Amino acid sequence: MIPLSWYLLLSATLFSIGLIGFVIRRDLIVMLMCLEIMFNAVNIAFASFSYYNSNLTGQIFVLFSIAVAACEAVIGLAIVLALVRNTGINHSDEIVNLRG
Amino acid sequence: MNPLIEQVFYVYFFISLTILSIAVIASKNIIHSAFFLLIFLLHVAAIFLFLNAEFLMIIQIIVYVGGVLALFIFAIMIMNIKEEFRHKRFVKFSIAGLITGFLFLAGLYIFLGTVKSPENVLIKSDVNSLGKLLYSYYFLPFEILSLVLLIAMVGGIIIAKKTPFDREGK
Q1: What is the pLDDT of residues B48-84, one digit of tens each?
Q2: Residue B136 distance to chain A (closest CA, Å)
Q3: Residue B102 banded pLDDT, cuts 50, 70, 90
Q4: Looking at the domain assignment, is residue A40 inside a domain?
Q5: A27 φ, ψ (degrees, to nearest 5)
Q6: Predicted structure pTM score
Q7: How many CB atoms lie within 10 A of CB A73?
């Protein structure tokens, strides 16, 4: 039987790796992938709380989180596609139109 | 199941999930990181199977691996990205990002060291009771979620549509 803290440590590790990747990369698509990693870490935490409290609410919140992550991927990829198509820019350091 | 075998499998999944998520953010080619993300999502589905959540495993495989990863790979293929070799991969202050992430991780480890696991665990989860809960108590968030999905679909189509560059009032 695996204790609860192991799953929480796994979730914390994956969330930190996703956070580091979101900060130190400059590709827009890799930043979206790091967002997916962070969503999955939080989903593991929700599912483990659902398991150890013998309650199904955590699994329903994982369902909602997966749907919101799908929406975020669709909108983010559409915005990146519009940026690449109109300006040819793929890196977050080069988007300087609003800098004035 | 024998608890030793269970813990051995858990340690395998911990190590492989960590290595795969590091490989996503460290690989040079962007299509390689997409495929590392695919294997990562399949391992997360296996972790859901550990937690007696079979329905979530199916949803994870169908939605993430079948939907979101296909979307990522199609977007990478459409954009035809070759600019990765012109630029540096990491930003200038990436050391600061690493230090921030490790401080966050250390704080979470200190906080999570005192967690006690309760005795009564979820014995088995059937889709029947999950659907009853979803359609009775969480019915309004479910409907709002359907509206959010519809708006995201329409907005994605409108944003990504190829617009004519110069209109008539020029």
Answers
A1: 998 888 999 999 999 999 999 999 999 888 887 765 5
A2: 12
A3: very high
A4: yes
A5: -70, 135
A6: 0.90
A7: 25
- Taking CB atoms and an 8 Å cutoff, what residues of chain A touch B72? 29, 32-33, 73, 77
Burial label, B113 (beta-carbon count in 10 A; 0-12, 13-18, 19+): exposed
Cα separation, B37 vs B17, whole angstroms? 10
Give the bridge partners for A91, in sequence order.
A27
User: What tokens were used for A92?
Assistant: 């977050």
**A58 inside domain:** yes
Give the pLDDT confidence of B22-36 residue by residue, as tens digits: 999 998 888 999 999
Q: How many domains does chain A have?
A: 1
pLDDT in tens, chain A (100 residues): 788 889 999 999 999 999 999 999 888 899 999 999 999 999 999 999 999 988 889 999 999 999 999 999 999 999 988 888 887 777 877 777 777 6
CB contacts, 8 Å: B162 with chain A: 85
| ipTM of the complex as predicted | 0.92
Question: Hey, of B7, B32, B44, which one would you mutate to test binding to chain A, going by the most A CBs within 10 A of its CB?
Answer: B44
A36 domain-assigned: yes
Structural domain boundaries enclosing A46: 26-90
